[in-house]
Design a protein that fits this description.
Helices cover 36% and strands 39% of the residues. By secondary structure, it is of the alpha+beta class. It has one domain: Roll (Nuclear Transport Factor 2, Chain: A).
């Protein structure tokens, strides 16, 4: 891969990740899904692996029901080849409806750092692996 191709690939990958987060912050699940491969692998913090766009859609619907979140201070880093990317951000959220196995929801707000690792294939996101500190989140929503 020559330097110009490498640069273009990295720019395209970063733009893809930024569009993903713009859609997230707009609450536009369909726009997020349009950026994913049909066989997307979705690994979430403290949860099981989900494979496929329909499982990702169901996860988004469940999350939107229980939480209202915006991501701020997003920093995107892309590998030299553009096949991998990472994003670090701060989550500003409101816990809307009690999620099974978690503390009762009473409209508590929370702020915590998070991050996501991505794999990119053929111009689409093929893997999303998200991390945040669940213990910190539980402490925040339990203390209000």
């Amino acid at each position: 891969m020559n330097a110009q191709t490498e640069s273009n690939t990295r720019v395209a990958a970063a733009a893809l990740i930024r569009r993903y987060y713009e859609a997230f912050n707009a609450g536009d699940s369909d726009a997020m899904l349009a950026l994913l491969s049909d066989d997307v692998i979705h690994d979430v913090n403290q949860g099981e692996r989900r494979i496929g766009i329909e499982k990702f859609r169901a996860f988004n619907a469940r999350m939107s029901h229980h939480y209202k979140e915006k991501l701020n201070d997003i920093v995107v880093t892309v590998s030299r080849t553009g096949e991998r990317a990472a994003a670090e951000f701060n989550v500003e959220g409101t816990y809307l409806v009690t999620d099974e196995g978690l503390p009762d929801a009473k409209g508590q707000t929370y702020t915590l750092p998070g991050g996501t690792f991505f794999a990119i294939r053929d111009g689409k996101i093929s893997r999303v692996t998200t991390y945040y500190n669940l213990t910190d989140w539980i402490l925040q929503v339990s203390s209000t």
